[in-house]
Design a protein that fits this description.
28 strands, mainly beta, 1 helix, 4-stranded antiparallel β-sheet
């Protein structure tokens, strides 16, 4: 069976590459240009009038991106490492269109803040998107191989890469592999589930071998249906809903225990095998999952109340190298709420979810107004102060954004880098959902 999978995957890859080359690479190479590696776009970012309705939204450190029903991608905020994907270096406090490749269906953002307790600049930023063909495209910083280009800062770059020592790709570039049906970007790693149900990762994850192109996990031993990547960890669900995580066990994200000195798990490790889940989300230092009944479970770091258990007791110490855990979450534990959720999203130090009616709930750190819940207790889920109902929700680091039933994007939190998309560079706090600029009413 593994051999048949590899044969089938080889055929699918060939077809995907043929599509990508005919639609993108051939016209550009005829002009002597390698996609994403050419000269920086001279003009500044042009504000986009977004095609509506929007269908998905994703946030990261200082940046937010959304995809329309017709497959266009738009990003706004801090343009660290050219993560906005339009080809220029300037940041944009309003949506700009990502350089088109083919209609896109999903987008994921990786990277982190220089200071994980907030206050520092975003860095090591990259983004990846999935096209309708199943091809994956990545852009931004690829120093650890997380762009899947077949090279990184430790190997010889392709001609035209600028700067030559660390590849920064300014616009979407096809990944050396695929096709995929799911993608997840972490700090310095990207993973995807192929159409053959095998899981592939590229980049660098603590405890794992660095890969500059998509590499399968342990010879097809794992078959996952859903996955999410965070700071230095990846979690996934198999076809039966069992949870597996791997990477760095900082704050107990891998298994909720106190490992003493930092322990790296290079391969998927079963987490609470007695439980079954239908979705999982990983943030900077904590993770959450939903079961079939919509009950939420969270584990990991909790000093801001981001686990939603009614406490802010640090479950693990703050050291980056040695952990002191006076108590642990012991893996996934249910939240202190009876609300049934349909979707959950995990940010830097806060968590948000949608209930079955589309109402947004948030908990955890609120100093940057990213909860949108007012002065209520932030250690348990509280409703966001709005009459809006959402179809998709994303928690960044200092911002939260969602797509309302009318297909338009709204954001709230701190507008430090323009990540709220409200066409202002003023560093201000927005306590309730604000309409992102560049949108008109949906007909």
């Amino acid at each position: 069976m593994p051999r048949l999978r590899r044969i089938r995957m080889s055929v699918m890859r060939a077809l995907t590459r043929l599509f990508v080359l005919s639609a993108l690479v051939a016209p550009l190479t005829a002009c002597g240009v390698i996609p994403g590696l050419g000269p920086e776009k001279a003009s500044g970012p042009t504000a986009a009038h977004m095609a509506l309705p929007l269908v998905s939204i994703s946030s990261g450190a200082g940046v937010t991106c959304a995809i329309s029903a017709s497959g266009e991608a738009y990003c706004w905020g801090h343009n660290t490492n050219w993560v906005l994907g339009y080809g220029g270096a300037a940041s944009a406090p309003y949506p700009v269109e990502v350089t088109p490749v083919e209609p896109l269906t999903r987008l994921t953002i990786g990277g982190t803040f220089l200071d994980s307790s907030l206050g520092g600049d975003p860095y090591d930023m990259h983004a990846c998107a999935q096209g309708i063909s199943g091809a994956a495209y990545c852009w931004g910083k690829g120093q650890a191989g997380q762009l899947g280009l077949g090279y990184d800062a430790h190997s010889s770059p392709r001609p035209g890469a600028t700067p030559p020592s660390i590849p920064w790709i300014r616009t979407p570039h096809p990944v050396d592999g695929g096709p995929f049906r799911r993608l997840a970007a972490g700090w310095s790693v990207t993973c995807g589930i192929g159409v053959d149900d095998s899981t592939y990762c590229w980049g660098t994850l603590p405890g794992s071998v660095r890969h500059i192109s998509p590499a399968p996990l342990d010879e097809d031993s794992y078959s996952f249906g859903q996955l999410s990547a965070g700071g230095s960890q990846v979690c996934a669900l198999d076809q039966a809903g069992h949870l597996f995580c791997w990477g760095r066990n900082r704050w107990g994200v891998i298994d909720g225990s106190d490992p003493g000195p930092t322990v790296d798990e290079p391969l998927p490790t079963a987490v609470s095998p007695e439980l079954n889940f239908r979705s999982v989300a990983v943030g900077l230092h904590h993770a959450c999952a939903l079961d079939a009944d919509g009950r939420a479970f969270c584990w990991g770091r909790n000093d801001e109340g981001q686990l939603g258990n009614g406490s802010t007791e640090p479950l693990c110490g703050r050291s980056h190298d040695v952990h002191t855990c006076p108590s642990t979450s012991g893996g996934p534990r249910p939240l202190a709420t009876s609300v049934s959720f349909s979707e959950i999203t995990v940010g830097g130090l806060h968590t948000c979810a949608l209930d079955r009616a589309g109402r947004a709930w948030c908990w955890g750190r609120r100093l940057e107004a990213q909860l949108g819940t007012g002065p209520e207790d932030n250690t348990v889920p509280q409703p966001v102060l709005t009459d809006l109902r959402f179809t998709d929700l994303t928690a960044g680091v200092e911002q939260t954004c969602g797509i309302a039933l009318d297909g338009r994007a709204y954001c709230w939190g701190r507008n430090r880098w323009g990540e709220l998309g409200i066409a202002s560079k003023t560093d201000t706090l927005v306590y309730e959902p604000a309409l992102v600029s560049g949108q008109s009413a949906v007909n």
